[in-house]
Design a protein that fits this description.
Structural class: alpha+beta
Radius of gyration: 25 Å
Number of helices: 5
Strand order of the largest sheet: 12-11-10-9-16-17
Distance between the termini: 28 Å
Number of strands: 17
Shape: elongated
Helix content: 10-25%
Largest sheet: 6 strands, antiparallel
C-alpha cells in the first residue's frame, strides 16, 4: 500500500503575527502510532512521548536535529483516505481571546483508492490547538442535497421513467449486476445477472467469456428472489443518503460521496478502513442511471445515460 506524506503549509496571519508551523518530513514516520482522524493530531511534548509512538534511535536523532522541545512541541497525525486527501493548517483568533488558535482543515479526495497518510510538524509551545471536526461532513451534506435536487428535476423531466443499475464484485471473482426499471415512479422490472471472473486471472486466448446466470421479475414476482439489489425506486434508495453524509465518523471510518457528470448522486457510503478485502459498505452505490421510457428496441426514448 502506497504511503503519502502530505501537509499543505498555508499559515494565516493573525493580528500581524505569524506563528511558525514547520513540517518535519523524514523517512520512517509511517511506522509511528496508529491511524486516526486527520484533524486530531497527537501532541508530543517530550522525547519519551516520541519514543512511545515507536520511534527508533535513528529517527529520534533525526527529529532532534530539527526540533527544540524546550521552545516547541510536535504534532503528529496518521490517517487513511483517498490519494487526493488534503490537510492544511488554519490559524484564527479565538473568540474573545487575544492569541492565535491552530486547527486543521481536512479535504477528502474523491478517488476510491485507500492510501496511508502521515505528517509531523513543529509548532510553538504557546500556540493553542483546537480540535475540529473535518469540514467534509458539511461539504458532503451540501453535495448530497444539491444532487438530490438535481435528481428531482431530471426525474420529473422524464415523467418518472428511468432505469438504474447496481453492480458488485468480490475478490473471489463473483460479479453481479441488478437493473431496476421504473415506470411512472413505480418499479416495473428487476433484472439480475451474475458470473464468475477471477480478477487476478484474465481470460486466456481462446477462452470463452463467462456465461452469466440470472432472472427477470415483473408484476407480482417483484422481490421474489433473494439475490440482487432491492426492487425500489431511486427516491427510496436516496433516503439513506443524507443520514450517511451527516453521520459523525469513527477514527477507522471513511466516507465517500460522488456524483456523475450530470450532478446525480452515484455514491454515498462509509467503509471500515480496518478491513482490506471485500470491504462492506454502509450506504448506496449506483453504477448507471438511464433516463427515459424504454422502447421496443430496448433503448429509452430521448435517453440520457449518466454514469
Amino acid at each position: 500500500m502506497q504511503l503519502l506524506i502530505l501537509f499543505a503549509l498555508c499559515p494565516v496571519i493573525v493580528d500581524g503575527a505569524e506563528p511558525e508551523v514547520r513540517r518535519i518530513d523524514l523517512p520512517g514516520l509511517s511506522a509511528l502510532g496508529r491511524p486516526g482522524k486527520p484533524t486530531e493530531p497527537v501532541e508530543l511534548t517530550s522525547w519519551d512521548a516520541v519514543k512511545a509512538l515507536g520511534a527508533g534511535e535513528d529517527l529520534l536523532q533525526a527529529i532532534k536535529k530539527q526540533v527544540d522541545l524546550e521552545q516547541e512541541r510536535l504534532l503528529f497525525v496518521r490517517w487513511q483516505g483517498s490519494g487526493q486527501d488534503r490537510l492544511e493548517p488554519v490559524l484564527t483568533t479565538e473568540p474573545g481571546g487575544d492569541g492565535a488558535v491552530l486547527t486543521f482543515r481536512h479535504q477528502p479526495g474523491r478517488t476510491r483508492d485507500l492510501r496511508q497518510h502521515a505528517a509531523m510538524f513543529a509548532v510553538p509551545r504557546t500556540l493553542k490547538l483546537a480540535h475540529a471536526e473535518p469540514a467534509a461532513a458539511n461539504g458532503d451534506v451540501a453535495l448530497v442535497k444539491q444532487a438530490l435536487q438535481q435528481w428531482g428535476e431530471q426525474r420529473d423531466k422524464f415523467d418518472g421513467n428511468y432505469l438504474y443499475t447496481v453492480s458488485t464484485s468480490s475478490f473471489s471473482g463473483l460479479r453481479t449486476q441488478t437493473t431496476i426499471t421504473i415506470r411512472n415512479n413505480k418499479v416495473f422490472r428487476r433484472t439480475f445477472q451474475k458470473f464468475m471472473q477471477p480478477a487476478l486471472e484474465p481470460l486466456r486466448p481462446g477462452q470463452p467469456e463467462p456465461v452469466p446466470q440470472g432472472w427477470d421479475e415483473e408484476g407480482d414476482q417483484l422481490g421474489s428472489h433473494q439475490e440482487g439489489a432491492p426492487a425500489i425506486t431511486l427516491d427510496a434508495l436516496y433516503e439513506k443518503a443524507e443520514p450517511i453524509a451527516s453521520r459523525k465518523l469513527e477514527a477507522f471510518e471513511k466516507r465517500y460521496v460522488r456524483t456523475n457528470k450530470q450532478g446525480l448522486l452515484t455514491s454515498c457510503f462509509i467503509i471500515d478502513t480496518r478491513i482490506a478485502d471485500d470491504v462492506p459498505i454502509d450506504g448506496l452505490v449506483v453504477n448507471q442511471i438511464t433516463l427515459g421510457l424504454p422502447q421496443p428496441d430496448g433503448q429509452p426514448k430521448d435517453a440520457e445515460t449518466n454514469r
